[in-house]
Structures are given as structure tokens and as C-alpha cells.
Amino acid sequence: MTLDPITLGVIWGALQSIAIEIGTTVHKTAYSEQAREGQDFSVAVFDRRGRMVAQGPYSPGHMGAMSFAVKNALAAHPIETLRPGDAVLLNDPLLGSGHLPDFFITQPAFYQGELVGFAVNILHHTDVGGSRPGSQGVEGIFDYFQEGLRIPPTKVWQEYQEQEGIVGIIAANTRTPDKVLGDLRAQRSALRVGELRLTELAARYGRDGLFAAMDEIVARTEANMRAAIRRVPDGVYTFEDFLDDWGPGTDPLRVFVTVTVAGDSITIDYAGSSPQTASGMNSYINYTRSYSYAAVKCLTDPYGPMNEGALRPITVTAPEGCFLNPRPPAGGGPRAIICYRTFEAVIGALAPALPDRVAAASSHFANPTFGGVDRARGRRFVAYELVLSGTGARATKDGCEAMASAFNASNIPVEAQEANQPVVIERFELIRDSAGPGRFRGGCGIRRDMRFLADEGKLTNLSERQRFAPYGLFGGGTGGLARTLINPGADEQAVHGKQSRGFAYGDVISFQQSGAGGYGDPFERDPARVLDDVLDDYVSVEAARGHYGVVITGDGFDLRVDQPATALLRAQRRLQRSEAR
Predict the structure, then answer these.
(1) CA-to-CA distance for 124 and 138, rounded, in angstroms?
(2) Mean pLDDT along residues 369-391
(3) How are beta strands 52-55 and 552-555 bridged, if at all?
(4) Backbone angles phi, psi at 70, to 5 degrees
(5) Does the chain have fewer CB atoms within 10 Å around its N or its C terminus?
(6) How far apart are CA 297 and CA 424, in angstroms?
């Protein structure tokens, strides 16, 4: 069936709108802070053959894995066995996005008795059991059986009826049954909205019209993606970076990538990366694929649709048994901390080919979880935190402040945490002189200090870039290193980025995140922009001189650039740098 351009455009807009409405429903009805405030969920619409057609503006880590999760759900529950109102849940790390807290739900939509598509979503749940509150421990984990409840593809709803026995098992294996069941039912309600909208769309344009539009959207997306890849110079590009370690006292983890561009296809191979670890620090292949896809999409066709067609020209491989493609039952609970490194490794590899499109490495986020006893409410709690810092500098712009880079989550508002958890946020601020210098500077690191009014406190730290700073590009400097402290000040205690440890009532835990990398020679930055950064307290007067060669005189708000002294200092620094070579 051939569709006219206007009808095709309207159906495409409707599919996007359906995905967004599913996501909005999750956002408005979820119980947990990470879903309601941090937007740690994703949604998509699939066609009747299980191909992703449209997605919401959420996390690439979920979206890239979602196609595989749906295929695995349908392998266990073939299409001919599905009925209206069925909903298949899975969280198996190998079948989904790599860790147990991510619950994927796939629900079919039928029109006049015929399958017309699927509404799908995934949400990161607060706690699914295991050895640590939040189910994301690094230390002491040697397989995923220690990380919580694993659910193979299972019909948790059959013909709109919740299966009480299965839901009861889920509730019995979490420290936060109210939030987990609330979020699970929010997912299911949102998919019901998606099911109704898909059915309405089929009724309006007919099944054949809807199917033809979906086929055309996927085909055009693939064609556009291949055309964009053809504009990348053919070649073999490599890059290397390191994660700090896989727990206290362990070695760094090497991320080595080879990106091969050949005509209209790209192959990404992680051969040479470190072997899998006896910890939670592993990334199952679907998750590794996800952020590799996202990096290529950002560099080639960032404004085009993201669906099955966009994935076809990209092949992602990693040796079985490396930490980016571990053999089950390897742990993978804290795998989110790895995603920036795979994303940025592909970006770094393609930087020589696409210098005007790439960005330097971003500040690394922190994703700690906490457990304990809430003294005021007389109950146990699990708290999830996101500390998102600056993004890397680009060819024409500075990095941004306090934003997610490789995914679309948000910093959880202070008010939401304080209202729902036994915590007081004492500081939430940018860190001066943390941004990597460059012609365009990176975004600043974020400091977030949390005082916990809890007994029997347990912290599962999940942070990075405490040892290997975010890289700069084309002469740009690295960002400042991260650190985590308990009770910062004279008696402060440093906390390893992946340590599990206790804390006492009233302790302050300070997450001080790395700054992002800079782009280009810092001595080429406009001195007026350096002055603005000093006035905004992003950069100190000393760093302006030391990092940018800009001499600033005056005091208070009466600061100005000494142009002759700046020109002389920069000339001297360039001469010194030239002689050093």
C-alpha cells in the first residue's frame, strides 16, 4: 500500500505522540523518586513484527536494549499465544539491559482481533533484593544471584488480570514493596494508554495503512542513517580509555574500541578490553550495544528517528568473556557506571574523522544508593540518588552545567528527596576550577552534600573518574577528578568510588563529581569569556592565569582583563610549549 506524504507524516507524528503519552503517564503516576523526578525509564512503540518504530525522549541505554528485550519476550511467548490484555515482564540481565532493577514490559495491541503493534516500557526499580539496598553493589558480588530477583519472560498480566502470585513473589523480594509495586502498576497503566492509542490509530487509518506507514518509517530511517554514515570518511579508528577499577584495591578496567567505517555501515569492536570481573562491574552485551548505537546516532543522524532502521547499519561486538560482554551469571547491577565510557570511547575514536561534531568527555555522574532505618517514620528505606554534572566541550560551544550527557535523566530535586527520605541536602553547587580548560571549556563538576538522619545506614557508592580524568580534545584540558567524602572537613573520610560501607546518624556524605573535558587550545579562548567565567565563579583568577594565560586585575566585581599582560603571558607560554616539544 502506498501512502501520500501527508498521511505518512500524520501517522509518524501520532506514533511519536503515543510514545510520549506512555512516558508522560509513567512520569505522572510512578511512586519512586528516580522515575517520577529522575526520569529513569523509557518507552517505545513496536510494530506487529516486534520492530521498534518510535520511541520517547528517554535513556539510550534502555532504548538500544529494548529491541532485544522485545525479541526475547516474543521468543518465550510467541505472537500467536498472546491475547488482548496480556503483558510480558522480564528483567533477566542477558535478555534485557544488563541488570535486574530494569523491568521491561511488553503489551500487545489488537484491532478487530488482529495484532497491530506493541506498547513497551522499562523502568528502573528502587530495589529488587540482593545483598545491598538498591541492588547495585560492586564489592562482594561474584554472580547475579547475589543482586536480586531474576524474572524470565513472564505474563504478569493475562487478559487484563494481574497475576497475584507473581506480583506477590516480586513484593516479597524487595525492600521497598510499596514503590516497586506502585511503579510496576504505573508501567502497566501507561501501556494500557499506549494500547488504546494504537488501536485508535488503526481504526482511523486502517490496519493496512498503519502497517504501510510503519514499514516506510523504518525503511526511510535506515536509508537516512546509511546516507549519513557514507559521509563519514572510511577508515579504521581506535581509542582507549580506563574505568578507575572494579572495587577497592583492584586494577583499572581498559575500554579499547576499534570503529571501522566502510561505506554505509559501521562496525564497533571492543576486542582488547579487560576481561569480565568477579564483581558487579560488568556490562552485558545489549547494554554495551545501546550506548555504542547512541554515540553513532549522535554523530551521524542526530535529528532523524531512532528505530529499528537506525540500528541496522551498526554492528557492535565484544569478545565473550570480556567485561563488556560477560558470560552469565556475571554480576551487572552497577553497569550504569560503565555507559559513559563506552559512549565516549566511540566518540573519541571518531574524533579525527568528525572533529566538528564530537564533544570532549563529560563529567561522570554518581548513582549511589542508601539504605537504613528512618527514625522519624519508624520504617526502613532505600534511597536512590543521581548526581549529574557537566557535559564535554564542543567545537563551537562550552559544555553545559548539571546535565546528563549520554542519557536523558535529571538530577533529583532537593525538595523531592527531603520530602520522601530521611535526608537534608546541605550543598548543591558547581565546583570552581573543575571544568577542563580549552578554547571552549567543559562543564563544571557538581557537589552535592547529603546529611542522613538514619540509623543502620548503608551506602553503596557508585562513582567514577576519581583516578582517570575526563579527556579533552584537540588540545583541550582534562576535567578535575571526582571524590566522595564522609563528613567533609578536618576529620573527613575518603570513600572509594565503588565501596560499600556503613554510615552513622547525622553523617554528611559529599559527592564531588569530576569536571568535563575542554575542546581546543585554552590560549585561544576569548579573554572576555574567561573574565565572564571568573565573574560567574566557574574559574578562579589564579586558574584564569594558569590555565588560560589570561591576566585579570582589580578586585570584587571590578575585575577586568589586562590585555597587554595577557598577550605577553600567552606568547611566553606558547614559546615554552614549543620548546618543550
Answers:
(1) 18
(2) 95
(3) unpaired
(4) -65, -45
(5) C
(6) 39
80's CB contacts (< 8 A; 6+ apart) are none
Tens of pLDDT, residue by residue over 99-121, are 999 999 999 999 999 999 999 99
What pLDDT, on a 0 to 100 scale, did the predictor assign at position 557?
81
The confidence score (pLDDT) of residue 453 equals 97
C-beta of residue 465 within 8 angstroms of C-beta of residue 363: yes
- Phi and psi (nearest 5°) for 501? -155, 170
Return the closest-CA partner of residue 359 out of 393, 330, 403: 393
Query: Kind and range of the H or E element at 381?
Result: strand 379-384
Per DSSP, the residues of 391-453 read: PPPBSSSPPPSS--SSS---PPPHHHHHHHSSEEEEEEEEPTT-SPPSSBPPPPPEEEEEEE-
Q: Give domain limits for the chain.
A: 5-221, 359-520, 527-580
Contact 473, 510 (CB under 8 A): no
Handedness of CA 377, 378, 381, 383 (dihedral sign): positive
State how far Cα 100 lies from the chain centre.
Answer: 16
Helix (H, G, I), strand (E, B) or coil at 108: strand
d(CA 275, CA 321): 6
Q: What is the pLDDT of residues 400-425, one digit of tens each?
A: 999 999 888 899 999 999 999 999 99
Whole-prediction pTM: 0.96
In the three-class reduction of DSSP (H, G, I as helix; E, B as strand; rest coil), residue 177 is classed as helix
What's the CA gap between 296 and 359, in Å, rounded?
13
Give the DSSP H or E segment for 369. Answer: strand 369-374
Cell representation of residue 45: 512503540
- 352 close to 237: Cβ distance less than 8 angstroms: yes
Rounded CA gap, 85 and 506, in Å? 48
Beta-carbon contacts of residue 491 (< 8 Å; ≥ 6 apart): none
3-class state of residue 104 by DSSP: strand
3-state secondary structure of 379: strand
The torsion defined by the Cα of 14, 20, 22 and 23, in degrees rounded to 10, comes to 170
CB within 8 Å of 521: residues ≥ 6 apart: 438, 439, 474, 475, 476
Helix (H, G, I), strand (E, B) or coil at 567: helix
Residue with cell 494500557: 192
Tens of pLDDT, residue by residue over 502-542, are 999 999 999 999 999 999 999 999 999 999 999 999 999 99
The beta strand positions in 244-349, using DSSP E, are 253-262, 265-269, 314-317
Handedness of CA 202, 208, 212, 218 (dihedral sign): positive
Alpha helices in 30-81 (DSSP H): 33-36, 60-76
Rounded to the nearest 10 degrees, what angle do helices 339-350 and 285-300 cross at? 40
Compute the chain's Rg from CA coordinates.
24
Q: How many CA atoms lie within 13 A of 530 on its CB side?
A: 29
